């Protein structure tokens, strides 16, 4: 046992316990909840500190444990910073969310059952402290307050039932909204939306025939599911700050950006119907993501020439093989150096198969990209042999490179599936 003098010296060395409660609360809020609770046995000084520290409940081990979350809420009295609830009973969700709202919750994720949608807890609609809200498999009540979520910055809805004009009502109510993601939300056949504050918008829907972005003066990123522009008419009426656009299917029929209409002719040639002074929105696009199947072809360059100030290009390539047929190299040379090649800095290709079609197109970029700095090729795990990479590197050894600083990178695609959410990480979270 320690002598009285040694015990006194040990207490003097416990500088952490001498910190004010506010600092200790901040420290405890950064710990996993189990470790935070365990500090209560250290001494009488620590016994009740965790109960008043800001609470973060996001761990997978907790978000599915209804009984444990209920016990934590029963014992904890402090503010709630973040909370995630997955597949809880409706009564438990209502009770916990109501308590969290009263304690100023900032980040909330609710995940229900896709085949058994429930109404959102009414208390959510009165919450003014929320900064981030993610909802999966719920439906909003028909009556929505005109000024809900005044401080909300990010809204993510997936498999959420949106009736009639509820989406636009939400956008009009959330005056500070910066980021909106919608995935497979029930809606009418035509969606027409506006937002004065929205900066990032991601959309995935298989039921909407037409998407109209009427007025988004601050929109910078528009991310669409891979086949949206093929199956859905997209009209962007007013988005003067648009910089990131994707995914565009190479075989889309028509796309309206401002007063410019892009549409494909029967001969697979893109035509731009606009006066030069109307093409400002096309020139504002700096980052473009394209979805295409099989071989690179002339249509791709016809599309790229519509975006004269392009700096970053992402290509998601489905299908294909090493033995794809390819076009005559003269077709690439006929285009010469298009205007976007004066600005293009990086190219990323997901689904690189090393076919002659792939090589010819990329060699064209290498030979004409004046400021091209990096080409990243993500290839399937089935091409893991060193000979494959070595052979492709030799094929890209173009003597007349337009840019002397160009770097070429080959990487195995660890996320080999091509779903929207996986590819989206490369672009959306830039």
UniProtKB/TrEMBL annotation:
<dbReference type="InterPro" id="IPR032675">
    <property type="entry name" value="LRR_dom_sf"/>
</dbReference>
<protein>
    <recommendedName>
        <fullName>F-box domain-containing protein</fullName>
    </recommendedName>
</protein>
<feature type="domain" description="F-box">
    <location>
        <begin position="13"/>
        <end position="49"/>
    </location>
</feature>
<dbReference type="Pfam" id="PF00646">
    <property type="entry name" value="F-box"/>
</dbReference>
<dbReference type="Pfam" id="PF08387">
    <property type="entry name" value="FBD"/>
</dbReference>
<dbReference type="InterPro" id="IPR055411">
    <property type="entry name" value="LRR_FXL15/At3g58940/PEG3-like"/>
</dbReference>
<dbReference type="InterPro" id="IPR036047">
    <property type="entry name" value="F-box-like_dom_sf"/>
</dbReference>
<dbReference type="InterPro" id="IPR053781">
    <property type="entry name" value="F-box_AtFBL13-like"/>
</dbReference>
<dbReference type="Pfam" id="PF24758">
    <property type="entry name" value="LRR_At5g56370"/>
</dbReference>
<dbReference type="InterPro" id="IPR055302">
    <property type="entry name" value="F-box_dom-containing"/>
</dbReference>
<dbReference type="InterPro" id="IPR006566">
    <property type="entry name" value="FBD"/>
</dbReference>
<dbReference type="InterPro" id="IPR001810">
    <property type="entry name" value="F-box_dom"/>
</dbReference>
């Amino acid at each position: 046992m320690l002598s009285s003098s040694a015990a006194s010296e040990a207490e003097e060395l416990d500088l952490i316990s001498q910190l004010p409660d506010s600092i200790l609360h901040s420290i405890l809020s950064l710990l996993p909840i189990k470790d935070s609770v365990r500090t209560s046995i250290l001494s009488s000084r620590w016994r009740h500190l965790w109960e008043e520290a800001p609470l973060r409940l996001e761990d997978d081990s907790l978000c599915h444990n209804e009984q444990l979350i209920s016990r934590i809420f029963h014992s904890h009295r402090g503010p709630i910073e973040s909370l995630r609830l997955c597949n809880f009973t409706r009564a438990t969700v209502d009770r916990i969310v109501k308590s969290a709202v009263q304690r100023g919750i900032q980040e909330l994720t609710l995940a229900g059952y896709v085949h058994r949608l429930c109404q959102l807890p009414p208390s959510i609609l009165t919450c003014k402290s929320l900064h981030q809200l993610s909802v999966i498999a719920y439906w909003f009540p028909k009556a929505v307050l005109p000024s809900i979520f005044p401080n909300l910055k990010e809204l993510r809805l997936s498999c959420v039932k949106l009736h009639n004009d509820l989406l636009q009502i939400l956008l009009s109510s959330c005056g500070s909204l910066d980021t909106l993601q919608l995935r497979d939300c029930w809606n009418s056949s035509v969606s027409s939306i506006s937002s004065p504050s929205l900066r990032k918008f991601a959309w995935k829907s298989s039921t909407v025939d037409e998407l109209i972005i009427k007025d988004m003066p601050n929109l910078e990123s528009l991310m669409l599911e891979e086949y949206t522009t093929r199956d859905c008419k997209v009209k962007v009426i007013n988005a003067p700050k648009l910089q990131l656009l994707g995914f565009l299917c190479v075989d889309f029929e028509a796309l309206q950006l401002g007063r410019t209409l892009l549409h494909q002719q029967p001969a697979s040639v893109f035509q731009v119907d606009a006066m030069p002074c109307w093409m400002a929105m096309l020139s504002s696009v700096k980052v473009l993501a394209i979805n295409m199947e099989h071989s690179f072809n002339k249509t791709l360059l016809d599309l790229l020439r519509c975006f004269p100030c392009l700096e970053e290009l992402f290509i998601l390539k489905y299908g294909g093989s090493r033995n794809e047929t390819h076009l005559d190299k003269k077709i690439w040379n006929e285009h010469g150096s298009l205007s976007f090649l004066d600005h293009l800095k990086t190219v990323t290709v997901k689904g690189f198969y090393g076919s002659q079609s792939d090589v010819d197109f990329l060699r064209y970029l290498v030979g004409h990209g004046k400021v091209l700095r990096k080409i990243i090729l993500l290839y399937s795990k089935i091409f893991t042999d060193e000979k494959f990479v070595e052979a492709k590197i030799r094929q890209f050894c173009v003597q007349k490179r337009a840019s002397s600083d160009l770097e070429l990178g080959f990487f195995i695609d660890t996320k080999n599936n091509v779903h929207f959410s996986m590819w989206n990480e490369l672009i959306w979270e830039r």
